[in-house]
Amino acid sequence: MKELKVILVSDSTGETAQNYIKSVTSQFPDLKVNLIRKPSIISTKEIDEVMEEADKSTIVVQTIADKDLSNHLREVAKKRNMEVLDILNYGIRKVEEATGLKAIRQVGLTRTLSKDYFDMIEAIEFAIKYDDGKDPRGFPLSDIVLVGVSRTSKTPTTMILATKNFKVSNLPLVPEIRLPQEIFEVDPERIIGLVIDPDKLSNIREVRSKSLGIVGESIYYDDKRIRKELEYAREVYKDLDCKVIDVTENTIEQTATDIVQYYFEKFPEEHKDHVQY
Predict the structure, then answer these.
(1) Residue span of the signal peptide, if any (predicted)?
(2) Is 202 annotated as a binding residue?
(3) Are residue 131 and residue 173 in the same domain, yes or no?
(4) 3-state SS assignment for residue 29
């Protein structure tokens, strides 16, 4: 039987890291895991001592809120050619990117974290896994499915909703690409179709193209092409019998708020399962 050494480094109890790694390693029934828990780490000296116990075959999982300590751990690991699973800061970074807020990074705060934290991490991982329609099997598993043509803010809206513990997937609409069968297995009330003014969409796509170094005319932001895509999208929304939201004048945050309000009108019994700000 294969053995794996895992060191859990935390400024708190290490329970978050332990629950995470147990969830991961449960998928490997033939693996013997040696968990070493190092809680209440608050100094670089303690980190150095912990890393003396590690080698290249060791997995280090950290939940350290203090940025300097977290960076120090990663630097030590890098010198040893080791990778660190930084699950707390990964979640913090994604929330900061999605919301524009800054984490307080208070040491030991994870002691007070509830089930909401783990639900949020799970929702963020879900959003990444099922983003951009790359795995249609995620549609029937979703709380919400966002559907729309390119550049209607599906992915950033998905990430904001994930921070509120919603499991969200999204599907890009392209007239030449057939809709996956799985989208028709979703409750229509869980599907949100996004529309936008064609002129604004053309401007957004043109700016995006230029930022990628694409010069000259492009079908991507051609007016006729865009109108064709949006017309196709509205036909799809009729077929799906889903809610449609116009995002032309909306910020991403406003779109997310509109979706949440609609969702709880349709599924009031699920209100307790999601974070509200």
Answers:
(1) none
(2) no
(3) yes
(4) coil
**Which residues 6+ apart lie within 8 Å of 212 measured at CB?**
none
Write down the pLDDT at residue 40: 87
Annotated binding-site residue? 40: no
- Which pLDDT does position 98 carry in this prediction? 79
Name 194's bridge partners. Answer: 245
Question: What total number of domains does the chain contain?
Answer: 2
Residues 161-216 pLDDT 10s: 999 999 999 999 999 999 999 999 999 999 999 999 999 999 999 888 887 777 66
24 and 45 share one domain: yes
Among candidate residues 80, 111, 142, the one where a domain is terminated: 111
Q: Which domain holds residue 171?
A: 115-274
269 closest CA partner among 189, 200, 214: 189
153 is in an annotated binding site: yes
149: annotated binding-site residue?
yes
Half-sphere exposure for 126 (CA within 13 Å, toward CB)? 27
- Rounded CA-CA distance 69/65 in Å is 8
With both helix axes pointing from N to C terminus, report the angle between 115-129 and 15-25 in degrees, rounded to the nearest 10.
40
Q: Is 218 annotated as a binding residue?
A: no
91 annotated ligand-binding residue: no
The conformation of residue 47, written as its DSSP 8-state character, comes to H
Same domain, residue pair 26 and 147: no
Q: What is the CATH number of the domain that holds 242?
A: 3.40.50
